[in-house]
Amino acid sequence: MIPGRKFAVMAAAAVLLAACSSGGGDTADSSASPAAGGGGPITIATTNFSETKILASMYQQVLEANGVDASIKELTTREVIVPALEKGEVQLTPEYLGSLTEFLNKEVNGADAEQLATGDADATFTAVTPLAEQQGLTLLTPSPAQDQNAFAVTADFASQNNLQTLTQLGEYSQANPITLGGPPECPKRPFCQPGLEQTYNVKVGSFVPLDAGGPLTIQALKQGKVNVGLVFSSSGSVAANDLVVLEDDKGLQTAENILPALYSPAVTDTITTALDKVSAALTTDELQLLNQQVEIDRQSPEKVATAFLEEKGLL
């Protein structure tokens, strides 16, 4: 998710870059007593973003199924949630690896700290773990599922031109310069057009200013007005519109694997084991389908989360 939530949320905040709620508001309840130790009730913080609503509901349901009293509290942004987590005002939140890494990096090392997050999830997790520990947080094993900036084409375009990776797109574009669609700032952002050109040797014949992975980009792809568009890798619109996300095989984008972040004093083996199973069960493709069910089919995050957990044998 690039610091903040991916491209679109970067301007506002991450993956980015996000509940059924037991209480709303912009700040955590400062009168709440931080958990003194493991074994107490768990409050899961989320934001008003469908994907993290689904994830928070999964965490709540699987914890309760394992005997842990868990509730959900909807807050606003990472800037609110992480400090609340560090104080123990909430004890758990779904996070995004690269974005959280850079948030904690700036908290600990200052606003001008050199970027630690890369496209290598293992290296990024290794880099962020001591920062999290310094802030009183425990990060669990990242999921294979990611929600990051990505470049998509239609399934027909991918099939006709044998495209699965961005490296292959670069090779294809040498004879067939692409028409790229994305937010207006894309031609100047290193992870957008310049990144495609420098990392993958993609020839961009023309750029069409649209939005950041939203309906304008999706529609332009479907109508053939662009043949490559910036999207979010786990978006429900990707699956719903038969789009193919090209593999970022050289790691242009930072790794944005989903992972549970916890207030360290609240961690128990029961919690760790339950949440690790949820993370291991998720993939990016499955996350697309879950988001589609909520964002497009208008099912509730709770219902979608329950069905997924039951299918995976976690409830």
Provide a descriptive summary of the structure in words.
The protein is an alpha/beta fold. The chain folds into two domains: 6-146 and 254-311, Periplasmic binding protein-like II (D-Maltodextrin-Binding Protein, domain 2), CATH 3.40.190; 149-245, D-Maltodextrin-Binding Protein, domain 2 (3-Layer(aba) Sandwich), CATH 3.40.190. Helices cover 42% and strands 16% of the residues. The protein has helices at residues 6-12, 50-65, 78-87, 97-109, 121-134, 155-160, 166-173, 193-200, 215-223, 236-240, 269-281, 284-295, 301-311; strands spanning 42-46, 70-74, 92-96, 137-139, 149-154, 178-182, 204-209, 228-232, 243-245, 258-263. The strands form three sheets. The chain has a five-stranded mixed sheet with strand order 7-6-8-5-9. It has a three-stranded antiparallel sheet with strand order 3-10-4, with helices on both faces. A two-stranded parallel ribbon has the order 1-2. Strand 6, helix 8 (193-200) and strand 7 form a beta-alpha-beta unit. Helix 4 (97-109) packs across helix 5 (121-134). The longest helix has 16 residues, at 50-65.
Distance between the termini: 29 Å
> Reading side by side through the largest sheet, how are the strands ordered?
7-6-8-5-9
Strand content: 15-25%
Derived from helix and strand composition plus strand pairing, the structural class reads alpha/beta
Largest sheet: 5 strands, mixed
Q: Kindly state the mean pLDDT as a whole number?
A: 90
Report the top-level CATH class of the largest domain.
Alpha Beta
The strand count comes to: 10
* Helix/strand order: HEHEHEHHEEHHEHEHEHEEHHH
Overall spatial form: globular
Q: What is the CATH topology descriptor of the largest domain?
A: D-Maltodextrin-Binding Protein, domain 2
Regarding quaternary structure, what we see is: single chain
Tally of helical runs: 13
Residue share in helices? 40-55%
Name the CATH homologous superfamily of the largest domain: Periplasmic binding protein-like II
Please tell me how large the radius of gyration is: 19 Å
Total number of domains: 2
